[in-house]
Amino acid sequence: MAYPATKKAKSTARKPNSSGRFTGITRTFWVLFGAGILGLILYVLAVSVNFLNLFGRMPNLKTLENPKSELASEIYSADGVLMGKYFHENRTPAEYEELPQHLVDALIATEDARFEEHSGIDLKGLGRAAMGIVTFRKSGGASTLTQQVAKMLFRTREDLNDGALNDVPGLRMIIIKTKEWIMAVRLERNYTKREILRMYLNTAEYGSNAFGITVAAKTFFNKKPANLKLEEAALLVGVVNGPSWFNPVRNPERSKRRRNWVLSQMNKYHYIDEPTYQKAVARPIALDYKVENQNEGIAPYFRVEVSKMLKAWAKETDHDLYADGLKIYTTIDSRMQKYAEGAVAEHMKLQQKWFDQQWKGQQPWRDENGKVIPNFLSSSIQRTERYKSLFNRYEGNKDSIKYYLNKKYKMKVFTWQGGEKEVLMSPMDSLAYYKRILHSGFMAMNPLNGQVKAWVGGINFKYIKYDHVKQGKRQPGSTFKPFVYVAAIDQGYSPCYQRPDVPTTFPAERGRPAYTPKNFEGSYSGRSFTLRQALARSMNSITAWLVQKLEPATIVSYAKRLGITSPIEAVPAVGFGSSDVSIYELAGAYSTFVNKGVWTSPMMVTRIEDKNGNVLRDFMPQTREALSEETAYLMTYMLRGATEEQGGTSIILKNGFKFPYEMGAKTGTTSNYSDGWFMGLTPDLVCGMWVGGEDRSVHFRTGAYGQGSRLALPIYGLFMRKVYSDKSIGINTGPFPKPEKPLSIEIDCSRYYGGSAQRDTIPYDQKLNQVDLNDLQDQDI
In its keyword annotation, does this UniProt entry include NAD (predicted)? Predict the structure, then answer.
C-alpha cells in the first residue's frame, strides 16, 4: 500500500506547474521589457544631454524656440522696388496664409499622411519600417514632416555630428535618428502644426538655387506661392525629394512622373477626387523658368558697391548680410535707374558701331604718335587670372602656356546684338575682342541731400564686372576746370572779368620742361573773353592764366575741400585734369555748387531693418560747409554758360535736345581722346558720366567723335529727356535758387558783348556742338 503512495508523490514532484512556469516567463519578460524601457529612457537622456560628449551636441531650448535658416537679404529702391538679393541660399519666407491649400495637401499626402495625428514621431510608421527591415521588403520611410523639419533646420547630419560615438560603424545613423526624434517631439510642443508646415516649405531646397517655396515658385513658374496651380504645387512638392534628380528643366519626364505620383497620393488620401486627378496628370509641365542670380536685377554695379559697405557694417554689428534676411533700403530711384541704363545702352551701342567702323581691319591700341603698340596683347594677357593659372600649372613653360592661350573654345561673349553670342575663340582672341570694347559709367545724385538716384557702372554686369563710377578712375580733362574757376571766384574774380585768348607759359622747374597749354583747335584768337565765356567754351589759354595766378597748390586745396579724395598733383596741368578721379568724386563735388556751398557725401543707403522689420540703423549723409552761398551760386551761373553762351560746349542741350530749363554743364576730353566726360546740373539733380576704352591707348582717332561733347554728353540728353517726361518723378524744372542776400559782384556780362568779347566767335571745336541732334544718331563715318 505504501508503494503506490510513494509513486504518486514522486510523480507529483516531477510534473511542472504550468501556471508557475508562465508566471516566471511573464515576470522575466516584464523585467526585460522594463529594463529595455529604462535603457531607452537613459539612452535618450544621454543623447539629449550629450553625456560625456559621446553623441554630439543638441540645440538648446533657445535655439529650438527660434530656429534659424538662412534667409536672403533684400535690397530695395527708394520707391519700393526689389532691386536684388544677397544670399548664400536664396530664400525668402512665406507666411502660412500665402500658401494655397492644395500645396499643403500635396505635402501631407506625400510626406506624412498621419501628420495631424502624431506628436512628432509616427509609431505606426516606425513599426512598418521595422517590419520592412525584418522581411527585406520596401515599406516606405518612417520620418515624419516634423522630423524632416528638424533635419533641415538643425542640420542633424552635419552640424550636430561631433560626438565620440558618431564615427563608430552602425551607430552614427542611430544617433542621428534619435536626435531627430527628440527634436521632432520638442518642435511639436513649441509650434502648431501650421507653423511646422510653414517651416518645412520655407526651409526645403527645390534645386536651381531656390530655397523655400517663395523662391521656388518664382524660379520655376514666375509666380507667388498663392498663385500656384494644383499640378504646379504637386511638382514642387515632388522636387524636394531629389532637387537634382527630379529637376523639371533637366529631367522633365522624370519630374512629370514624380508630379503625377504626388497627385496620386492626393487622390489616395481624398484631397482631390478622381476627375480632378485625371485632369491634373494629363496636363503637361508648363514652366516659366528663370534662376535668380546676383548678375541680374536693378543696378547690379551699385548693389556690389553697397555690399562693401554692408559687409563692413555687418562685421561690426555681428550680422550676416547673406543669411540674416535683412531689408536694405537704398536711395536709388528705380525709374531713373531704368532711364540711365537705357540711355547708356542706346548711346554706347551707337558709339561702338562708329568705333568698329573707324578701326575696321586695324589694331586700335596706339601710342601718343598714333603708332600700334608692339606686344600690346601679349603684355596684357599676362595680367589676367587665366595666364597666372596656366603659369602655375605648367611651371612657367612658355610653349604650354602659349598653346592653351591660343587654343579655341566655345564661349559666350558680350555683344550689342542680343546681349551675348556663342563663339569659337581662344583666350587671346577673347582678349583682343574685349580690348576693342568701349566702356561707360554714369551716376546721378540729388545734390540737396546726397542721395544717389541712378548708378550705371558699366555696359554689362554679367560680362564686365568692373565699376566705372567709383572703382574706376581716369583723368577728368576739362571737367576739372571748375575747381580753377571756383578758386578764382572765391578770390574775388567776377564771371564778367575779361582775359585775352593768348598763350600762357609755365617756366621749366625741377626737371619739368616749360609748359604752354594749347586750346583745343591749337590756336589763339587774341580776343578777350569773360571768365564765363572762357569756361563755357572750355578755353585752355584763360584757364592756364588762372592756374598761374592762383598757383596749382590752391587748385588742389579747393578740389580737396569739395570732396576729391584721390591724390592730386600740384602741377601746372592740374587745371586740365591731369590726375585721375572718379565719377563718384566729381558728382559729389559739383553738387556743392547746387547745394549752396555745402558739400554732401554721396549717400547710397537710408536704413537697414532686420527680418522682422525692426530698424537696425538709419543713415545720414556727411556734410560740411565748403563754399559761401554766393560763391556756390556764381559757379552754377558760370556752368550754365556751357548751355547758354554762344559757342558753349554743351549748347546742343538747348539746340538739339530742346531743353528749355536752366542747366549747368561741363564737358571734358583728355589727350588723344582717351576719355570723354560730361557733368550736368539741374536744381535737384547732378549727373556725371565717362566713356572710354579699358586702356587709355584705345580711343577714337579724332575729336569729331572722341571729345566729351560727342562721346559722353548725349547720354545725359537721352537720360534727362526721359526724366523730364516722367511726371511721377517730379524733377525740378525751375531756375537755380539765388542766395537770400544780394550778390556782391556783377554777373550781367551783356554790356561786354558789344566790344572785345565777341559772342558770335565760335572756335572749330565748338562748331561740332552746333550740329543738329540727328547727327548724333546712326550714321556712317
Answer: no
Domains of the chain as residue ranges with CATH? 88-282 (1.10.3810.10), 440-756 (3.40.710.10)
One-letter identity of residue 367: D
Contact 452, 332 (CB under 8 A): yes
- What pLDDT is attached to residue 168? 64
Angle at 470 between CA 469 and CA 471, to 5 degrees: 105
Radius of gyration of the chain (CA): 37
Joined together, the cell numbers standing for residue 59 give 540645440
| 620 phi-psi bin (left φ>0, alpha ψ -120 to 50, beta other) | beta
Check: CB of residue 361 under 8 Å from CB of residue 110.
no
Q: Is the pTM of this model over 0.85?
A: no
Report whether 637 contacts 495 (CB < 8 A). Answer: yes
- Contact in structure between 56 and 44 (CB atoms under 8 Å): no
Over the stretch 509-568, which tens digit does the pLDDT of each residue have? Answer: 888 899 999 998 888 999 999 999 999 999 999 999 999 999 999 999 999 999 999 999
Virtual torsion, Cα 650, 655, 659, 661, nearest 10 deg: 70
User: CB of 626 within 8 A of CB of 561?
Assistant: yes
Show the beta-strand stretches assigned E in 384-437. 409-415, 419-425
Torsion of CA 268, 269, 274, 277, to 10 degrees: -80
Distance CA 179, CA 158 (A): 12
Burial string for 585-609 (b: 16+ CB within 10 Å, else e) reads bbbbbbbbbbbbbbbbbbbbbbebb
- Residues in Cβ contact with 204 at an 8 Å cutoff, skipping those fewer than 6 apart: 152, 211, 212, 213, 240
Torsion sign across C-alpha atoms 66, 70, 75, 81: negative
Of residues 477 and 9, more confidently modeled:
477
> For residue 39, what is its C-alpha cell?
535603457
Three-state secondary structure call for residue 113:
coil
Residue 539's identity, in one-letter code, is M
Instruction: Look at the alpha carbons of 762, 764, 765, 770 in this order and tell me if their dihedral is positive or negative.
Output: positive
Neighbours of 362 (CB within 10 A): 10
Q: How confident is the model at residue 48 (pLDDT cuts 50, 70, 90)?
A: low
Q: Which of 671, 643, 636 is nearest to 476 (CA)?
A: 671
